[in-house]
Amino acid sequence: MLERAQERQIEELHPASFGWALQCCAWDRQEAEDVLQTTYVKILDGRARFDGRSSLKTWLFAVIRRTAAERRRSRWARSLLSLHWRDGHPDPPPVATPEALAGDLETARALRVALSLLPARQREVLHLVFYQDLTVEEAAQILGVSVGSARTHYHRGKAGLRQRLGEEARP
Amino acid sequence: MSRPDPDPDLARRFAALRQQERQAVPPFRLLWAAAGRRRPGAAGRFLLLAAAGAAVVAAALLAAWLVAQKVPAPRPSPGAAPSIVEWRSPTDFLLRTPGQEILRQPPALGRGFAIEPGASIPSLTTDRRSS
Q1: How many Å lie between the alpha carbon of A131 and the closest alpha carbon of chain B?
Q2: In terms of CA atoms, which chain A residue is nearest residue B36?
Q3: Which of A107, A125, B31, B84 is deepest in the core (most CB within 10 A)?
Q4: B95-127 tens-digit pLDDT
C-alpha cells in the first residue's frame, strides 16, 4: 500500500513529472497526460514500487520514461498492422514539427524546436540537467546509462543545441 | 558533480520553457483519481486470477483427453513378415563355394581329395601300406 507521505511527495513532483513526460512524448500534451496517468496506475497497483535505492524523483522519472517507451512501442506495433503501413506510409515519428510549435512563446518555442532536432539521449540528458536541475549522475541513473556516457551525451547535446539555436537566431 | 560546466544562456532558455509548461500542468488530483479508477480492484484481480486458473485447467483437461484418445501404433501380424531369424537372402546361394562338402568332412588318412568327376570316393577301409 502506498504511504501517504509518498503520495504527497509524488504530488509535489507532479509539475516536474509532467514536464518530463512532455519531453518523453515529444511535447504531445495528450500523450504526456496518458503516460503520467499510466505511471500513477502502476504506482497505485504496485507494479512500480519505490525501494529506496535512489531518490523518489529519480525513480519516478525512470518509471515515466519506461512507460512512455512502452506506449511508443505498442503504438509502433499497431502501426505495423494498420493500412497506413501497408500503403507504405508509416506513422511519422512522434516528434513535434516546428510548425506545430509555432504558436508558443518565442524563447521556449525556439528551444523546443532545437531540442526536437537532437538525438533522443542528448535531448533527455539536457532536459534532466537544465530543466529538472538534476546532476549528470542522476540523469545517468534515470536513463540507465553510465555516467561517462551521460556526460558525453550532455556535451554533444549542448554543442548541438548551441549550433541549432545559433542557426535559428541568424536572419 | 552537479553540472560539468555552467551555461547561463541555456539555463535561461530552459527556465523559460519550464515556466511556460508549468502554466499548463493538469491538476495532480485529476490524474491521480483517474489512475485510481483505472486500477483493477480486488474484484478485477480475482476475475483475472480465476480466468487464468480456468485456462490452465482447460489446457490440462485437453491434454489428458488427447493422451486418452491416442490410438496405439499398429503391431504387425505374426504371419505377415518373416522374422529376422528365418529370413534368407534371395542371393544366398552365391555364397556357397564349390566342393563345400569336402570342407565339411574331416580329413582322413588314405583318402585323396583329387577326385575325378564321376569317380567314386575311395573306401576308407583300404590300407595302402599292405599293398
Answers
A1: 5
A2: A41
A3: A125
A4: 888 877 778 888 877 766 665 566 555 555 545
CATH 1.20.1260 fits domain A1-92: no
ipTM: 0.77
Question: What is the Cα–Cα distance from B2 to A133, expressed in whole angstroms?
Answer: 9
Give the class (CATH, top level) of A103-171: mainly alpha
Q: In terms of CA atoms, which chain A residue is nearest residue B34?
A: A37
> In the 8-state DSSP scheme, what is residue A88?
T
Q: What is the pTM of this model?
A: 0.62
Q: Which of A30, A23, A46, A33 is nearest to A108 (CA)?
A: A23
Residues ≥6 apart with Cβ < 8 Å to A36? A17, A18, A21, A64, B26, B31
What does DSSP assign to residue A131?
I
Interface contact A162-B10, CB threshold 8 A = yes
Alpha helix stretches (DSSP H) within chain A: 4-12, 14-24, 29-44, 56-81, 83-86, 106-116, 120-126, 136-143, 147-169
- The one-letter amino acid code at B96 reads R
